[in-house]
Structure prediction request, 200 residues.
Amino acid sequence: MAGFRSLARQVRDPLSDLALRRYSLRKCLERFAPYGHRATWDHLCSRAGFGPEDRSPDPARLVAALEELEEARAVWLAYEDAFARRRRKEKHDGLRRPASFDDWHRLTWGGCGVAWCDDPAVHPSEPLAEVLRRIIRALEREPGACCPVCADTRLVWQHDLAHEPPSGPVCTGCGIVVPRPVLTPAALAAARRARLLVSA
Prediction:
């Protein structure tokens, strides 16, 4: 099975068939898709300027989409590396069991679903790398009351998400499932109440 870098080389290969290059970009999303496969694909297509169903996109646009994905992946891999170093130090210091804060990271290992968007057509418009940087910065500071990506405070608890965990606070501004560790208990409670008001 081809890895991300091998697939990226196929996307860039000017001698490859255009359909294979497009297919290889889609396959990259099986290795790294911060919003989930469908939402990340929709995001990349809209930012690079080709349609999600376009079977013959401009090769330069395919490469532009790949470059955005690669930049975001580099941001995430650096975060995972720092996370792994921290855990090694904690284990060395006798803290064998990860904190509950780390549960979120365990569910997003590899970068798939870091900023899950349950509706593939609703996702942040900013570059993927910037979205990930904002989430990482939020994870490194005290919890707050708003979405770390768009700063919207309108969070609604949603059940039956197509991802783990199966329920959580969804930002009505940018569509991501906000990582619970970045929100205060009061913000989480408000999102749960908002869900009740919406369904009533």
